[in-house]
Amino acid sequence: MRIGFIGLGIMGRPMARNLLKAGYTLKVYTHKRETVEELVREGAQPGTSGADVAADSDVVILMLPNSPNVKDAVLGENGVLDGAKKGMILVDMSSINPIVSREICARMEEKGCDMLDAPVSGGEPKAIDGTLAIMAGGKREVFERVREILEVMGSSVTWCGEIGAGNTTKLANQIIVAANIAAVSEALVLGKKAGVRPEVIYQAIRGGLAGSTVMDAKAPMMMDGDFRPGFRINLHIKDLNNALETGHSVGAPLPLTAEIMEMMQWLNAAGYAAEDHSSLVKYYEFLSGTDVRRQ
Ligand code: NAD
């Protein structure tokens, strides 16, 4: 099966590399030419546009920032839709608004193509290891046809329902991660102000009910003051925005998400947009006039 890959950023690059290592023929395209050249040195073929990649591929994978980028790459001039042949499968692994996934799928189907939305969770380390959690939406039989490809990039691959279900599941993931980071921040700052070292709190509770993968990943970063991304605040703002829009459109109020969105807006205004989302702790540190760094 010939695969096209569009969007070679923090996530897309290692995911494309894993497909190359698994022996797939890959044609790649991204806005940055140097990145295309880097992948070409590793065995990929260079693409010149979305249309060019689609014309030579049975399956086209996208890993782009947000809905407007996906619309541009698929429906824009020289986009995937222009080059796609009947029967091609588009697998959009970007985290975007599920409403937009459904719009784009309808356009692909008009041309006799299929589409899955298949966003991921796990971040760069799991993209490198090929152990992402992948949550897919679209026709079940289309999902089964590309399952093998998805399993090269992820260790957990779940079909969640019809088109848009992958991104709806990802939004649920992002709400839980954001709320968890906010709760860890609030709790560690309380400990510091009340005279118990954040490290002691973390070690004491991580094995109990409050323990979580999020806490294990983010509490040490907060205490080390290491806010290199990881997952950037501005991408999490994008996800919470998509969650709020989706929630409003289906009649599901999201009060907690709205509150955390405003905390992230503060971080954005304060110049922390490019930092890891664990820098949410800085909002609490600002409110309380302390910090949770290890002494
Ligand atoms: P990134 O900004 O590092 O990479 C995006 C790439 O897409 C860039 O190389 C950019 O040049 C390219 N691009 C943008 N528009 C394009 C277009 N129209 N045509 C071709 N190329 C285009 O982003 P990332 O961190 O790799 O994230 C990609 C997606 O994965 C996002 O939706 C993000 O929310 C999601 N995600 C990221 C992480 C993470 O930890 N970084 C984890 C899980 C999910």
Strands, count:
9
Total domain modules = 2
Q: What is the CATH architecture assignment of the largest domain?
A: 3-Layer(aba) Sandwich
Largest sheet: 6 strands, parallel
Q: Output the strand order for the largest sheet.
A: 3-2-1-4-5-6
Small ligands present: nicotinamide-adenine-dinucleotide
Q: Looking at CATH, which topology of the largest domain would you report?
A: Rossmann fold
What is this structure, in a nutshell?
With 295 residues, the protein is an alpha/beta fold. 55% of the residues lie in helices and 14% in strands.
Tag the structure with descriptive keywords:
N-(1-d-carboxylethyl)-l-norvaline Dehydrogenase, domain 2, three-stranded mixed sheet, 295 residues, 9 strands, single chain, Rossmann fold, alpha/beta, 2 domains, binds nicotinamide-adenine-dinucleotide, six-stranded parallel sheet, elongated, 14 helices
